[in-house]
Hints:
The chain is of the alpha/beta class. It has 21 helices and 18 strands. A five-stranded parallel β-sheet has the order 2-3-6-1-8, sandwiched between helices. A five-stranded mixed β-sheet has the order 14-15-16-17-18, with helices on both faces. A two-stranded antiparallel ribbon has the order 4-5. The model has no long low-confidence stretch (mean pLDDT 87).
Amino acid sequence: MKYPIGIQSFEKIRKDGYVYVDKTDLVYRLAQGSIYFLARPRRFGKSLLVSTLKAYFEGRKDLFEGLKIMDLETEWSQYPVFHIDFNGQRFHQGGMLHKTLESSVAKWEKQYGLDPSGAGLGNRFIDVLAEAHRQTGQRCVVLIDEYDKPMLDVLDSDLMTTLNGQPISVEEDNRQELKAFYSCFKAADQDLRFVLLTGVTKFSQVSVFSGFNQPSDITLDSRYESLCGITEEELYSYFADDIAAMSDKFRISIDELKAGLKKRYDGYHFSENMTDVYNPFSLLNTFDQMKLQDYWFSTGSPEYLMRLLAKNHDNLMLLLSQEYGPNEFADYRADVEKPLPMIFQSGYLTIKETILRDLDYRYLLDFPNDEVRRGFVEMLAHNFFEQRQSGSMLPWVEKVVESLRVGDLAEARKLFTAFFAETPYTMRPKKESEFWFHYTFYLIMRLISCYTVYTEKQLSEGRADCIVETPKYVYIFEFKLDGTSSEALQQIRDRGYAKAYEADSRPVYMIGASFSSKTGIIEEWEEEKIKN
């Protein structure tokens, strides 16, 4: 089987015999509409979707032989298609976006015999659409891939340029350029058959679409939740032979291999239906190389997200313990510096539970799978602990893992005490000691990827700071800032954090610890075993 890794051309995939997961029934349904917006994480198949729509609207019937759409489409009309792809370009310099759009518009003007006017790019594109409609007798199709890249490249950066002799941020320059260009869709409505904009991020209150007929946002639309990515049903159908081959290679059962793939690459949900969607990039690389690795995360972390996280210190423990309405995580608002929408839209968080309340859906968010959780937390930890004098944290984490595996709490205490004692004083903010301690402990425990770790776990009578489940033991941690270990231990007892494990055969340990905001170390540590 040939795997289309990095191949975004529908024509090449079909002609060269690469495996293609047939979603053309969804493509056909989408194509019956008008103006859409779809956000999905990077390397999730957005560009292939755009390429498939381009082939469909160009009437390339030969490319769709044997696919589901052949039972649906009967006319195969040919439309003038205008494709703009912002992939592969970097928009850090002022004027680069204008040059990119100018090149496309000038090419289309030449194609339809128009002389460039002195009007703006948006008005020139309006003329192109009108002329294409007139010459072909068909309304136009506009496909814009990664529409938001010119904004994301410079989002929250300090890059500057000049406009009409005046200094302006490159971010604002790009925003104005996009706003002026996208405004053409409203004026050209009578010449448009279909418009799709794809991207990573949905911007709200940035005025990019001011004056533009607002697209229908299908990002969380249950009808299109599996339009990109690979569902579990598709995985077992299209890749059955690959799964069997890998199970033979690793000498495990097919069910065990399926469980490993699910834990590592599954977990994305794009609607209240909670249909499991696997990361397609990681799956294709897994079958191509016949081994499980963190393929998607290793392709790089978005610069815009790193800049935003560096300036914002929202406590991720609490972000993952709250209910949200879709407007709270599906739209990025440039006037409020909150990282949650960016983290979600970039694919590092996903919907993990839906709650229907008063006819409105509320959502709980979490990491989709092990690959993303491990990579994201390691990225945060690298930035957060980069000033530590002891260098890499990996050897230390491995020692903690081993101490918890064998139930050696004395060794665990030594390791945690030494860690905080070795942390430079300059890393501890004077006014945010409580946040710093909880966030530090959160990152540490999330780095312990081989065990089940709950931070700020909601129980019947409150939230436990941390619960770690190993194959042989359960550890319930409670910490007090400038308090006592006895107080922390008593809170575990009073609030019944261990009740959930009454039927569990594993020994349960309660650990209370106190952290000093003055000295920056763990001053007291007390433990109690409550089950044999």
